[in-house]
Design a protein that fits this description.
The chain has about 200 residues and is mainly β. About 15% of the residues lie in helices and about 40% in strands. It contains 2 helices and 13 strands, in the order E-E-E-H-E-E-E-E-E-E-H-E-E-E-E. The strands form 2 sheets. Strands 1, 4, 5, 6, 7, 8, 9 and 13 form an 8-stranded antiparallel β-sheet that branches. The radius of gyration is 17 Å and the shape is globular. The C terminus is likely disordered.
Length: about 200
């Protein structure tokens, strides 16, 4: 029987959500709210529709997609992202169909048509825990994708979250207008920290 080695690393979530720009205190959207919003947003979408930001031309980042996501009633969640490769990369071995639904797409190896997105998957576990933590699950020698996932969630909160109204950039921060789901009122001048999920590894 073949065996696959997986390396699990845990990280603290220092900040997550929307913050008041005046005193930078937390306004709303905790970890479970963010996960619930991301899950709802990805439902009934094709994989290719789940990009939350466009990488800058001079960066080494590529498009990040939601490959699959599962949320449990206890607020735990598993998120699988798909990290796109440059199509000129000669080491590409797998690709997923971007025109298939999130959680129901297929993978092809080596030979694939234009509707397929070359890349690799990364795995994240958000356990129900008294402490705000999450874990990366890394197989073989691939990157754990933590920094790309942080960028993905940051852009989701800035542009796609159900409580988001609109967002603009100033010289230092992303200034957002958001609606607190608890009272339905619009809260203005919200600071979205960059990145909103600022993890610090405490165990692996």
């Amino acid at each position: 029987m073949s065996q696959v080695l997986a390396k699990v690393a845990f990280y603290d979530i220092i900040k997550c959500g929307y913050f008041n720009i005046e005193d930078r205190s937390h306004a709303f959207c905790f970890k479970h709210d963010m996960l619930k919003g991301l899950y709802q947003w990805t439902r009934n979408k094709m994989v290719g529709q789940t990009v939350t930001f466009t990488p800058q031309e001079d960066s080494q980042q590529s498009n990040i997609y939601c490959y699959d996501m599962h949320c449990e009633r206890d607020n735990s969640a598993v998120l699988i992202t798909w990290n796109g490769y440059d199509t000129t990369d000669e080491n590409i071995v797998s690709a997923i169909n971007g025109f298939k639904p999130v959680g129901n797409t297929d993978i092809k190896v080596s030979q694939f048509s234009d509707e397929y997105i070359p890349g690799y998957e990364t795995y994240f576990w958000f356990p129900r825990h008294a402490r705000d933590i999450f874990a990366t699950v890394r197989f073989e020698r691939r990157s754990n994708g933590r920094q790309d996932m942080c960028s993905y969630i940051e852009s989701f909160l800035a542009n796609k979250h159900p409580n988001h109204v609109f967002c603009y950039e100033d010289d230092e921060d992303s200034i957002c207008y958001g609606r607190d789901a608890t009272d339905g009122e619009t809260i203005s001048h919200l600071l979205l920290p960059s990145p909103p999920v600022c993890p610090e590894r405490f165990n692996k």
